[in-house]
Specification:
Elements (H helix, E strand, L loop, with lengths): L1 H4 L3 E7 L4 E7 L5 E9 L8 H7 L5 E8 L7 E5 L10 E7 L2 E7 L2 H13 L6 E7 L4 E7 L4 H11 L2
Length: 162
């Protein structure tokens, strides 16, 4: 993450030993001011619970908040499969990106077009479970499965796509 963002300031907080880490990066960038990332890990050290958690469909995950300097124009969500637990939005559709069907829900055409552009530029869009413009927090939100290079690639796409 650091390589992709080149932060001016960074702070890491461990979450309970083996559970994960929270990273906060301050940026010197014309569009983005800060990025927060949380890496949440399964209990790989637990011989009993780890296989059960895999059977239940749990995975190691990364959650990222990217804070732009400008105010977001409206809500926008793009996800693999169906989007659950979302407040009312004006528009809903499905599109295909590199063989993957994604659902889009949005109020802002500008924000959903930006998020769709980011997703379409990724080598493997299926690694991103959800990408959203969160107007309440004025941040872009991403939920990813952990994979080699996926996090850095997503962050680079945000940095170069304006």
């Amino acid at each position: 993450m650091e390589e992709a963002l080149q932060p001016v300031n960074k702070n890491y907080t461990w979450i309970g030993g083996y559970v994960g880490v929270v990273a906060e990066y301050d940026l010197k960038h014309e569009i983005y001011e800060k990025v927060k990332g949380t890496i949440s890990l399964l209990p790989h050290h637990s011989l009993l619970y780890f296989p059960i958690s895999l059977l239940l469909g749990r995975r190691d995950r990364v959650y990222i908040l990217i804070y732009p300097k400008r105010k977001l124009k409206g809500k926008a969500h793009i996800a693999i499969g169906k989007i659950k637990d979302i407040s009312k939005v004006s528009f809903k559709d499905e599109i295909e990106l590199k063989g993957v069907v994604v659902e889009r829900r949005y109020d802002s055409k500008e924000e959903i077009d930006f998020l769709t552009k980011i997703m379409s530029q990724l080598e493997d869009p299926s690694s991103v479970e959800l990408l959203a413009a969160n107007v309440e927090e004025n941040a872009y939100y991403a939920r990813l499965r952990i994979g080699r290079g996926d996090i850095s690639e997503l962050l680079r796409r945000f940095i170069v796509t304006a």
